[in-house]
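Teaching note: in complex prediction, the entire set of molecules is handled at once rather than each chain in isolation. The prompt given to students was simply: 'Predict the structure of this complex.' The entities are:
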Amino acid sequence: MQLIWNGLIVGSFYALVALGYSMVYGIIKLLNFAHGDIYMLGAFVGFFTLSAFGISNETSIPLLLVILLLSMVTTGLIGVGIERIAYRPLRKSPRLAVLITAIGVSFTLEYGVRQIFGPNPEAFPIRLESAGFDIAGVRVTASQIVLVVIAAALMLVLAHIVERTRQGRAMRAIALDPQGAQLMGVNVNRVIAIVFFIGSSLAGAAGVMAGAYYGSIDFLMGFIIGLKAFTAAVIGGIGNLYGAMLGGLLLGLLESFGAAWFGGEWRDVFAFAFLILFLTFKPTGLLGARVVERM
Amino acid sequence: MARDLAGALKHAPLRAPAPLFERPRAAGGIFDSQRGFMRALGGLVVVLVAVLPFLDASPYTISIATSALIYVMLCMGLNVVVGYAGLLDLGYIAFFAVGAYVSGIFTTVLGFPMWLALPATIAACIIAGIIIGAPTLRLRSDYLAIVTLGFGEIIRITANNLDITGGPSGIHGIPTWEFLGWSFADGFTIAGLEFPERVVFYYFVALVVIVVGVIGAGRLGKGKLGRAWKAVRDDEDAAEAMGINTYIAKISAYIIGAVWAGMAGQLMATHLSAISPNSFQFLYSALILMAVVLGGMGSTPGVIIGALFVSLAPELLRDFAEWRYLIFGILLVVVMLFRPAGLWPATAVLPWLKKRRPTPPPFTAAVGAYEPNEPAVEPSVMESVDGLPATDAEEGRRA
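The expected output is the structure of the full assembly:
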């Protein structure tokens, strides 16, 4: 039970990052390598703002929410900027070129942050209290509940946007057929920018939450979670929102059990081996539709 | 009628018509043909590599030059996978690690001489290439990228966790190469010139890299298999329709890339005499990929330039060491935005040959004999048709 709960916490981070991956992939078929670094940027934006106000070792939840919103807006704008500068000029290029550009963006973000904040891990100023209580034999802390609630709320909002609003309908239309959507009067560039904004802000939110949960952040924290989130998106079926949520939670659980069975140092090996096996046997993911590659 | 034609053709074999004009003579000088110039340039580079120890034989220079050559080998291997076959491999350093670790284990733990470890390295790399390639090469391009990335991480973490690979501290004391009792460590003396170990090893690396790495990989890319790779890269469906077994083509590119990286890994293990998992991080996969992309995917001179840049730039930019990955990242984006085919693309034409135009064909007798306004039928026939004199008809048409 403890394993399941821990897996759910980690899984909700993965799910939030995976959502951005999945949305961007679904709409312009781009594997946004820099997405994990947006997550890292979210944590650093929170860190920077709080440090600027001289706050440290804070435990208040309203403050966390304010910082969360601020980071979401900032990372969202950064995501839009990256799309505008690096990806939009290459939208008609071969996918390899765009993918390599994404790797370049990822490097730039990682080492840019390294130049600004230094290579050493920083302590995140908001630290949620770790006082916990037992529910049905599971050790649960209040901070964990807060994080899960925030993650769930963000996912619900996202589901509402995509399913119920005009913009969401435009997104789904572009994912189906970009040219067709454009002919029908959808402003494709605008909608793609919105998708980048939403995806990046979710990753930024996950970054702040991870900072508050683990207590330390560093400039390479986004790399491995970017990989894991991609794994989660693939497991769930890339391009499918509910698939990304499901995949994230599932991957969190799998890792939690894998670490318990094989030992913590093999956790990443377990996750990647699972990814390779999964792609071999069911490349469309759990909820994904079959996609035919057109070059 | 048809039979008459066939009969006539049997006795009068079809012959290509004589050319309308003389073909221009083939370019003579080095600077007049791309191929000749590239060969001369290649020869010049080989000479430069060969005389380097005579110019500066300090341990620092030789060590850096050896590393740079090994990078060239590695990049030529990745060029086969990414440049020729169009498979994005983000975990290429894993094969490098396999080569380095297998040769390290064979020489230190099992006590084999280095040259006997070479078959083991190659075999291990082929197996690794098949293990990672076989299940994943059916995937779409970006899935493949992420799976290879995961594979690279798996190899690194495994090397970090196992006992036989020495865990985080790695393998130490890897011996150098020796053949039939003569080791590179003994040095070499010929005609009064003494070559210490590092110079002998440098020459050995240079020989392997130039012969196997550059010429071997470059010629593979031009052969039948190489054309199959390029066809698969350009359009997989069309290549398959043309009878290329795309799966075999892709996995052979993968295996060859793996073997090249494995040999480079073995050279690197000898060169450094110690290896640890930290040398095989994703960062290095990305750097090698950057070298290939920056230089020009699928272009031998481009890849060599990229490899030399990536390996030598950190040494030249020693003062900016902390900035270099940031600079690399920005450079990668900028190159992709403004020069998506790389610094020296595979289709590049030398700038002074670009302006060359084919000489316009001279007018030959056959062309000169053609009169644009020549009437198609005999004047007498025309007269009988419309009852007008032929000259009047001509005048009327011209008016």
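Point out the following to students. The two ends of chain B are 43 Å apart (CA to CA). Chain B touches chain A through 45 residues (CB under 8 Å).
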